[in-house]
Amino acid sequence: MMKNEDRVFETFLRQYRSIFRVLINAAEQITSQYSVSFEQYLLLKQIHEQRNITLSELADSTRTTRSAAARKLRALLLDGFVEQEAKMDDRRVKYLRLTAKGANVEHDIRQAFLQSATTWEEIPSDLTGEDINQFFTQYQQNIAIWDRTRPKFRRPVLRAKKPAAGND
Q1: Which residue of 56, 68, 97, 147 pairs with 64 in a disulfide if CB–CB is 3.0 to 4.6 A?
Q2: What are phi and psi of 73, to 5 degrees?
Q3: Contact 81, 99 (CB under 8 A)
Q4: What is the DSSP string of 115-136?
Q5: 0.85 exceeded by pTM
Q6: pLDDT in tens, 100-129
Q7: What values do phi and psi take at 2, rounded to 5?
């Protein structure tokens, strides 16, 4: 008989594979047609919604680290989706905004997601679309609390082997 922890872990893995992986793959299927990852689309969306946003603000609002946001943003800059403009009174501060190309891609991906979202109603279930949204909202809040309070995993420190006697 499996211990409770093993059962919880196996259930988590099964749910991840069957629910979250499906959702992530569906999102990537849409965004990849525009040569951006889902994570990069989230940056485009935030830049579109929040005019004159800085890299630090972008990282905060998308709940990612500054270095991860910078890495994803670099590709968006190189591909011509985003441009930077230095702040007038402090040239070190760079504002981000979508180029015309970036605005078109953000709009097209948003429309594709909206079209895809209409199929949620077609999922055979006794739940309404509102029920599903409430569930995911509550689940997201619970996961956020768990993430803040869970013990963080640290790799064990490997101790250096003592030199064998006589190996000087």
Answers
A1: 68
A2: -70, -35
A3: yes
A4: HHHGGGGGS-SSS-HHHHHHHH
A5: no
A6: 999 999 999 999 998 887 776 677 778 777
A7: -75, 145
